Amino acid sequence: MRMFVLFIMHFLSVCPHQNTFAADKAEEAVAILEHLSTEIPRARAPRRLALTYASGDKFKEMASSYVRSALEKGIPSLFVDIKALYSDQSKKQAIYEIVDELRTSVTSEPAGGEPTTYLWTLYFLAQHHSHGSDFAKALETVELALVHTPTLPELYMCKARILKRAGNVYGAARTMDEARLLDGQDRFLNTKSAKYRLRAGLVNEAHEVLGLFTKVRILIRCDEIQ
Q1: Which of 221, 196, 200 minimizes the C-alpha distance to 211?
Q2: What whole-number distance in Å separates Cα of residue 58 and Cα of residue 53?
Q3: Is residue 117 domain-resident?
Q4: Distance between CA 17 and CA 183 in Å, rounded?
Q5: From CA 180, how far away is CA 168, in angstroms rounded?
Q6: pLDDT under 50 in the chain at which residues?
Q7: What CATH number does the domain containing 165 carry?
Q8: Is residue 33 included in any domain, yes or no?
Q9: Of 1, 76, 150, 163, which is least surrounded by CB within 10 A?
Q10: How far is CA 221 from CA 148, 189, 208, 215, 217, in A?
């Protein structure tokens, strides 16, 4: 713990406020975070923070290790984790190339590669394309993932978000309901389904879904609490 505190104090002396540091301090900040990662190899935070300060080939090297590790472990939140880096177009492009290269490599291997790695690369790429408002490409990619694994709620939720962003709120509601039906006991999925139904104007259907997890049937109509 003492080592960790010393590293943090040193790091803050170099970069007291994220995104307001001097450019000539970036390399020193990355070096500090790399050293901290060596001391605490299981910690993801230093490696993630280093991506904020790294640039050029150093960024590509560190991003490749970080992104590949997360995809191989099947971490669904990877895109949300690194989305902030997309404000830098060069980093956005580098991340896309890393993920797409991994997708190509796992599908071209004789045994088809690790199936879960292929799945999570598709999941990431669908979110990537949706973020860039290329909804047709995003839907095409998430459909490939659904063909591969049609029983994963996260994929239907991803598709629903894409449809919502594309303006198809009715299709989004129906797709979110498909996610809900995969696990009828999941309160989060039921709540999401109700929210998407409300957005699509399906008030009575949303009312029914919200009533599934109440001991006393909901007395207030959904259209009164929107």
Answers
A1: 221
A2: 10
A3: no
A4: 43
A5: 18
A6: 1-2, 5, 110, 112, 216, 218-219, 223
A7: 1.25.40.10
A8: no
A9: 1
A10: 40, 20, 10, 16, 11
172, 200 contact by CB (below 8 A): yes
Q: What is the 3-state secondary structure (H, E, C) of the chain?
A: CHHHHHHHHHHHHHCCCCCCCCHHHHHHHHHHHHHHHHHCCCCCHHHHHHHHHCCHHHHHHHHHHHHHHHHHHCCCCHHHHHHHHHHCHHHHHHHHHHHHHHHHHHHHCCCCCCHHHHHHHHHHHHHHHHHCCCHHHHHHHHHHHHHHCCCCHHHHHHHHHHHHHCCCHHHHHHHHHHHHHHCCCCHHHHHHHHHHHHHCCCHHHHHHHHHHHCCCCCCCCHHHCC
- Is 203 within the bounds of a domain? yes
- Looking up tokens 């890393």 gives 98
26: its two tokens:
């970036």
| pTM for the structure as a whole | 0.84
Q: What would you measure as the largest C-alpha separation in the chain, in angstroms?
A: 62
Give the pLDDT confidence of 112-125 residue by residue, as tens digits. 456 789 999 999 99
* Beta carbons of 33 and 51 less than 8 angstroms apart: no
Inside any domain, residue 222: yes
Q: How many domains does the chain have?
A: 1
Give residue 93's pLDDT: 97
Candidates 13, 59, 16, 57; CA nearest to 34 is 59
Instruction: Report pLDDT for 12.
Output: 59
